[in-house]
Write a structure and sequence with these properties.
By secondary structure, the chain is of the alpha+beta class. The chain has one domain: Alpha-Beta Plaits. Helices cover 36% and strands 33% of the residues. It is built from 4 helices and 4 strands, in the order E-H-H-E-E-H-H-E. It starts with a strand and ends in a 5-residue tail after the last strand.
Length: 98
């Protein structure tokens, strides 16, 4: 599981929700890869321009293969999305505890 935090510009909130949501452009890109499970988009109830995404993958290896195989598409989409946010940071990479 990979979690990211975003602070979104006021003018970009609607577009951000469309692109980063479970049916958005990021999830569509992830679905091209084997091992992708799902994406969740969460909005901070106290700070409505703060969001987190949680991307689930079957394994670290699946995510790593995706990043290698789709590196240029990932970079292109990331560049296009930069204008919507004032801040973007990785919260972390997590694995479930059995």
């Amino acid at each position: 599981m990979y979690a990211w935090e975003y602070l979104v510009r006021p003018s970009g909130v609607l577009k951000f929700k469309r692109i980063y949501g479970p049916k958005g452009k990021w999830a569509r890109l992830f679905r091209k890869a084997r091992g992708y499970v799902r994406t969740e988009l969460h909005r901070d109830m106290g700070k409505p321009r703060r969001f987190i995404t949680i991307d689930y993958w079957k394994s670290y290896q699946a995510w790593k293969r995706f990043r290698q195989k789709f590196a240029s598409e990932f970079a292109e989409l990331d560049l296009k999305c930069e204008r919507m946010t004032t801040s973007e940071k990785e919260i972390g990479r997590f694995k479930p505890i059995d």
